[in-house]
Amino acid sequence: MLELLWSALNKVIKYVLNVFSPRRVPKDSQGYSTIQLIYDNYIVDSDSDHPRLVTGVVKVVFNRPLKKNAFNERMYMELIDAFQQISKDDHIHTCILTGNGDFYSSGNDLANFTASIMHPLSMARKARRICQEVIEAFITFKKPLVVVVNGPAIGLAVTSLGLCDRVYAVESAYFKTPFASLGISPEGCSTFTFPRIMGEKIAHEVLWEGKVLSAREALQCRLIHGVLSTKSDAENEALKHCEKIASSDGMESRRCLVRDGLVDELLEVNTQEQDVLERKFVSKDFFAKTAVFLEQKKMITAAIIVR
């Protein structure tokens, strides 16, 4: 009986490791990348298993559609791992990042703050560490990063676009950074990238006053590079850009145009932003505004805990 139980337990452990751990498969005989990264919250397609993809392109898809692709802790960690694994693969030239469902991403999942009761200082340190690490993953990502914004983008999903090399959006997308209404400060190196991209005035309106940009407005202020009617059209445009990179002399495909030469500066900006954010996370303003927000979302118990 004990042997049967031990055998069954081993099978369960192997199954769990197979399903929940990233798995890589070697390159095929033609030299194409057959990378297979298996995660809870992402779909990762390579050119070997997705006929629409150009050779040397991998597509990473946010896959929490029922939660509007909101980032929980595990999703952050999986994205960091995916970027690290893709960076190591010499047969991948470009990465496409997009979302599954109606949203690109609704930003930080509120459950990150309400899943367990923590001392405010511990919560602030943990939030700071996770946010800093995921932004570092964008900054140090070694391949050109092309984004298809398939729907609304909120918070970090917006600010991180300044670290991406090409961004296409569907007509129905909008871009919202509600930092002021939550009593927190901008992240994603946006205090550095947004003024460079769209100018000081509009960057201030977006980051500090919560100005919401439509897809056309985002295009006009150069946050994105194109607006398409459907996700399929936007992905086709992204693939054309990837194909252009893949057919270049190799130099363009090996460097990240936006981040090239700015890594050290961006890492320092990220640290400075996280210093401010960590202090904001333990401020009275943050707790008061977050409680109001949670009440508006009918998360009454969570609001009481925050208060």
Structure description:
The structure is a single chain. The protein is of the alpha/beta class and 307 residues long. It has a single domain, classed as 2-enoyl-CoA Hydratase, Chain A, domain 1. 49% of the residues lie in helices and 12% in strands. The chain contains 14 helices and 9 strands. A 6-stranded mixed beta sheet has the order 1-2-3-4-6-9, sandwiched between helices. Strands 5-7-8 form a 3-stranded mixed beta sheet. Helix 2 links the parallel strand 2 and strand 3 (94-99).
Q: Could you say which overall geometry the principal axes of the C-alpha atoms support? A: globular
Radius of gyration equals: 20 Å
Output the number of helix runs.
14
Percentage beta strand: 5-15%
- Can you list the strand order of the major beta sheet? 1-2-3-4-6-9
Domains, number: 1
Task: Classify the secondary structure makeup into a structural class.
Answer: alpha/beta
Tell me the CATH architecture. Answer: Alpha-Beta Complex
Q: Supply the CATH class.
A: Alpha Beta
CATH fold title? 2-enoyl-CoA Hydratase, Chain A, domain 1
Let me know the largest β-sheet.
6 strands, mixed
Helix content class: 40-55%
Count of strand segments: 9
On the 0 to 100 scale, the average pLDDT is 80
Order of helices and strands: HEEHEHHEEHEEHHHEHEHHHHH
What is the terminal separation in angstroms? 52 Å
- The CATH superfamily is identified as 2-enoyl-CoA Hydratase, Chain A, domain 1
Q: Segments where pLDDT lies below 50 for 5+ residues?
A: 1-34, 250-255, 300-307
